[in-house]
Structure formats: structure tokens, C-alpha cells
Please model this.
Amino acid sequence: MKLPLIYNPAAGSCGERRAMKIATGLEAYGAVVVPMGTSAPGDATELARRAADSGATRIVVAGGDGTINEAVNGIAGLDVELAVIPVGTVNVLAKALSVPSHINDACRLAVRGESIPLDLGIAGERYFTLMAGVGFDALTIKNLDPVLKRALKHAAFPISGIKTLVTEELPLISVKGGGHETEGYFVIAANSRYYGGRFGPTPLAHMQDGLLDFCVLKEKSFTEMIRFWISALMKEQLEEPRADYFRSDHAEISCPSGEPVLVQTDGEIVGELPVKIGLIPGGLRVCAGIGA
Model:
């Protein structure tokens, strides 16, 4: 099997040396590896598309959710399977699909594993595998200190979140979809029940059910925001009275005041409101340890 391997040589999580180790691991299971290093944001999209145009039927991405998201946007709608080697700062998709954390085991799955169909979300013109977020979490990502992220990894996000709550004003957001209309200050459109690690505010979400799970926080005070995330951490989100939870394959999200509100997909800022969010059932095939 000829396997393109997309990776970021400048990243501490997957530099040239580690990428070559991964290539060796893939070759040990019979693959002919074509290393494809990125050099700038967005390169993984172009490299994935180029690999598909060259006849690749499966690509391997060594990185975190941001790099994977870029690659997915290069192969969405094409007959190309995705395999993941989780070596990024955040590896939520790998956790959701039970991809082994050990590189050798992940390489074996990437070469010899069977693929499963996953629903593929789309926000505007940007595809996502995990979630789209509007408002608070997109601002948190924008305010994230990259040095702090490299040093503290997951722990950097709560720190950035607290800073965002203290320093940023959250405009009111309108959400309409699936016969449901609501307003709030933070919206998640989730394809997966995993948001950060193995917890999240959308516990009913499933990547193969043809629906997105929308969670809308209706309060914006520091106290209520902290309560919201504690509920998600304790897996009690469905009992949270200050959040609307509904399921649909589409929604339109806007800001009635016209203020700029950021949108993120899979942890990457992709634009501002208004945005239409939808779903493509079975739109992507991914190598997985178990069903999602």
C-alpha cells in the first residue's frame, strides 16, 4: 500500500525525526510511505488534495486535531480514507475513534485497519469531524497563548477560558434549526460526544447517527459559565437548566446585533457569524479502533 504521510516538520510534537520514526513504523507493516511535510497553515489541505489527485486511496496524518481538520478539508467528498497517528497537543478525534496512543500500534491500524464511515459536519464552507463552536470557545482559542499551549497542553485552555470570561464581552447569538429556535451566548454543534479529552457538553452525540447535537448556553456570567463546564465534566449536562440541547442535521446561527462573533471548527478559527451548519451522513471514512 502506498501511503502519503502528512506531518508538520516544525511542530515539537512531530518534527522530522519523529515523522521518520512514524514512516518506519508504517513501512514495517508493508506500506510504501510518501512523506509530505507542511510549511505553513493550510498546507495539509493542499497536500491531502494533491495526494488524492495522485491516486491515493488512504492518507495518514501525524498530528493533532488542527492538522487533521486541514487534511479532512482536502479530501472531503473524495473516495479517500483517513488514518490518524495522534502526536499533536490535542488528539480528541483519536480518542473518539480509539486510535492507539502508542505509535507502533497506531501505525499498524493505519496500514492494516478497516475504515468506518463517519458523518462529516460543515460550517459555511469548512468541514469538521468533531464540532463547530460559536462565541466563547472560539474566543478562547483566539486568546490562547501558543507558548502556554506547548508548555501546559490541555491545561492551557481553561486558563485562556478564564481570561476570556474576564476580558471579553459575549454578544447574544440566535440559533434556528430543526424546528427549534433559541438564543444564548455560546453554541456548540457537535458531531462527537468528546469535546476536550473524554468529556463534553454533548453526551448524546454520535458520529454515525446522521445528526448534530446543539448545545446553547443561555447565560454568560462567570458563575454560570463555570457551572456549565463543571456539568459537562461531571457528565450531567442534560440536567443543566440554563442550556438548550437539541438535535438536528442543520442550523442557522447569527448575531442579531451584528457584532463580530467568531466561529471555530475542530479547534481552528474559520470565520465569523452568520454561518449555516450542516451534516453529510457518512461523508468521511476513517480507520478506527472501534465504532464512533
